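Molecular record:
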Amino acid sequence: MEPNTKLYYDTNEVAEMVGCEPSALRFWEKKFPQLNPKRDSRNRRRYTERDIEIIRKIMHQRDKQGRTIKGTREQMRRKEESQLLIQRLLRVRKFLTDIQEVL
């Protein structure tokens, strides 16, 4: 199958795609709450494109930026918090714009 045509990938497929061992994926699943692959009826992990993107971010932080697992986890947590803050600020901005138009 061509890339982006599957909804779910198994552990071995993902490990081959990103260039790591399947055991590393299972380890990171325990260490990073953001990485939470779904399970099928036989309890096998099923990774989505979003999960694969998180794995790539973990690998980038570790390999390219030399961060530890703790440092990578903290960096990803901060990024999520900042994205949530941006979303809140955009909602407030829209609300204020709507009020301004009414006045």
